Amino acid sequence: MGEKRNWRVLIVDDDPQIIEMLESFLKFQKCYEVHTASNAFDAFNVLDQVVDVDVVLVDINMPGMTGIEFVKRLKDRDRTIVAAIITGDPSMDVIVKAMRSGASDFLSKPFKFDQFQVALKRLIKERSILLENAFLTEEVRVKKLLEQMNKKLERKMREQSILFSINETLAKTKNTTELYQTLVDLGASLLDASTAMLWIKEEERDSLVMVASHGEVWEGLDEIPCSDTSNPVIKVIRDGIPVLGKNPIVVGTTKKSRDGAKGCYLMVPFRIREEILGVLGISSRDIEAEIAHEYLFLLHILSERASLTVENILLYDTLFMNLHATLRALVRSLEAKDPYTKLHSERVTQWALEVAKKMNCSEEEIESLTFAGHLHDIGKIGIRDQILMKPGRLTEEEYEIIKTHPVIGAEIVGHLGLLHLETSIIRHHHERWDGNGYPDGLKGKDIPKLSRILAVADTYDAITSRRPYRKAMPDRFAYEEIRKNSGTQFDPQVVDAFSLIIEEKMKECQEE
Questions:
Q1: Distance between CA atoms of 169 and 164, rounded to whole angstroms?
Q2: Which CATH number fits domain 2-138: 3.40.50.2300, 2.60.40.10, 3.40.50.300, 1.10.760.10?
Q3: pTM
Q4: Residue pLDDT, tens place only, 479-496
């Protein structure tokens, strides 16, 4: 055992002869590294300088500090160092005190070297066992620490992944209705919940109305009166703090299985600018108690990020509506100068929307067409009144000036940072299906679809409206002109959809 490495032995004794004798014996063995000290204080200095002393042999009676006191302090310093008390009076009292101090053995003077060697081997063996136990204990401690750190790291990575997913998903939403549904879908998906719900406060009705849900929800949760103070949803609104608990009223299940339903629910306030707007809740049958607070934290983060998105949407909608109203006012003021074009943009927009719906355009396209329809002639602001309100026919030069209004309109709207689609509709509403339109001479499906729709509506209203140089033409004439120019000036599919609308209106008139 001792031959595997040199063991470090510290001899502490105020008798130089004892030190010399023990040192000579140990060095002769050629497996020990020997250090010496004449008192306890010098011994601690040696311990500070020598790394990993294995065994300490210390005299019981020394000036300044006894061997027993030294061993006590030594063990407080390092429990794995083994110590033996050297004494000339091996009484039972001394032995008990030595063992209580932490000594592993005692050596009686005078020494018998065969007994000393046996005792030393016992001390070395004990040191080996203590080191191994300390290593295993430390290994277990480090392993547990690593497991804890890994769990924290995994939790943090999951949180970051969730945050990224939340931010990425919410950034794609364009209106509050879509956001509300996205919010509950995210809540159910990210937190492995069977049901997720969002209620928004309705001040006039003094209740909370469910605006979005995921999974099966009981009847009666669509609207919760604020007077129902026992309901956890109302508690969240009232107190403004998250709620965690068990209550069948919010467990995601059908009404048929309500009896004996089990599950946990988590609810957090949904705030806008520190004001509680509503409540976001999830329910699950297997949320464990030890991770419930983690779920609450994630649900709170989800609610917080969503509230910022709602705030941005509302702010954008407000600015957008104010801007739209301002631009429409400009168009109305422009049309008001000329009694022949009054409310032209309103009528064109209505016709265009009817055609778009008939062609099954998306809600987003409908919104864009609504905006662009009202503003399609805003570029005429840049045209002189003498040309716009000229009572007779325009000269070729004047007509070329008029043809610039789609470009001017697109620039006005484009500089405001609005969507490219709206700008494109305005710029190209005078393009022709055969490529002979303006300003860019686009042809066929290169012309934006909504511009092709607007072109038909614009032409129909222009023909049926009174002009300085002619009377308003009958609806039938306008309709036939548009049909006649299908495939040349207009997109045939748009004309077909427009024709269906006109024919339906004519049929209604005949029935009346």
A1: 8
A2: 3.40.50.2300
A3: 0.46
A4: 999 999 999 999 999 999
